[in-house]
Amino acid sequence: MSFFAILCALLIEQVRPLALRNPVYAGVLAWTRWTSRNFDAGKPHHGWVAWSLAVFVPTVLALAVHWLLILTLGLPFAVLWSIAILYVTLGFRQFSHHFTSIRDALDEGDEPLARSLLAHWQHVDAINLPRSEIVRHVIEHSVIAAHRHVFGVLAWFSILAAVGLGPAGAVFYRMSEFVARYWVHKSGASTQPSSVWVQQAAERAWGVIDWLPARITALGFAVVGSFEEAIDCWRNDARRFPNENDGVILAATSGAVNVRLGGGTLRVVPATDPLSRAQAGDSFGDARGPDSGSTPGREPEPAHLRSVVGLVWRSVVMWMVLLALLTLARLLG
Is 301 exposed, middle or buried, given 0-12, 13-18 or 19+ CB atoms closer than 10 A? Predict the structure, then answer.
């Protein structure tokens, strides 16, 4: 049933994407703010208390509803619940409109518009970026967004669903990613900023939680791209990026499509709106750490954007086929 739930969620999300401002996102934001406001008391263990509540309460709630539906209404209703959970946690349309708009602007030769769209998407200063750097940053942010919105969710959902935990994996992964990102952004707020202990707890937990999904995503890109080059770049150039897990994905992407990634950083521009700040989103450390050089590969060009789209979709198809085969083997066995 996991394969069926994932397939339905992806199809529904393509037809009717979830709006940026919706009750689910607003509720998650309110819950995250409440936990940090009430349990972030400025001591090391408070950081873990706040993180545990913020992440595990929604996860356990999703699991409880799953088993309640199985025990009362039956498995079909539990599958519908899984589809609903995946619909709000999984999907390309949660970020792909940014990618599409920038790509279209570059295809039309409107670089100022492309810079403006990139700056609006990631809340960065992109005013002086040359064309190749616009493309590079769009590729990097889009690949990380695809991982966090699709492949990472797929990995955790599939693993936990296989042991009877229903959609808990999808909620656990997305909540872990969100609170780590939100509390870092909230650290710069003028009122009630996040303490360093809360940020450290969330970032350390996120590093562990995303370790396996990041490597699954990188492996998928290698299989459907240039395998030897992707693996070689993964081994030799992942350390060039500030974040270890994101570096693995970006290095594999660089080798898979033969494009130069990494290098210069962008200056983050603070967002005044809490929801925009929380969803600025798929930042992976552009403003952190020194420039550590670029991966080998061709200079980024708009054509590489189409190559990356193909890479991502081929990887989705590959993992869906694999899940279908595993489901069939389980049914026949």
Answer: middle
- Helix (H, G, I), strand (E, B), or coil: what is residue 178? helix
CA proximity to 249, closest of 214, 296, 206, 211: 214
Residue 314, classified by CB atoms within 10 Å of its CB into exposed (0-12), middle (13-18) or buried (19+), is middle
**pLDDT digits 0-9 by tens, 32-64:** 999 988 888 778 888 899 999 999 999 999 999
Residue 78 CB contacts under 8 Å (≥ 6 apart), including other chains: 1, 66, 67, 69, 70, 166
Q: Per-residue pLDDT tens for 217-275? A: 999 999 999 999 999 999 999 998 988 999 999 999 999 999 999 876 666 655 544 44
d(CA 279, CA 72): 37
Q: What's residue 221's pLDDT?
A: 97
**For residue 301, what are its two tokens?**
């060009």
What is d(CA 321, CA 31) in angstroms, rounded to the nearest whole number? 36
Q: Which amino acid is at 22?
A: N
Alpha-carbon separation of residue 309 from 81, 221, 223, 282 (angstroms): 30, 11, 15, 17
Residue 124 DSSP code:
E
Residue type (1 letter), 27: G
- What span, in angstroms and rounded, lies between the C-alpha atoms of 291 and 134? 17
Query: Residue 267 gets which letter from DSSP?
Result: E
Which among 198, 196, 194 has a CA at the least distance from the CA of 206?
Answer: 198
CA distance 125 to 115: 9
Tens of pLDDT, residue by residue over 313-330, are: 999 999 999 999 988 888
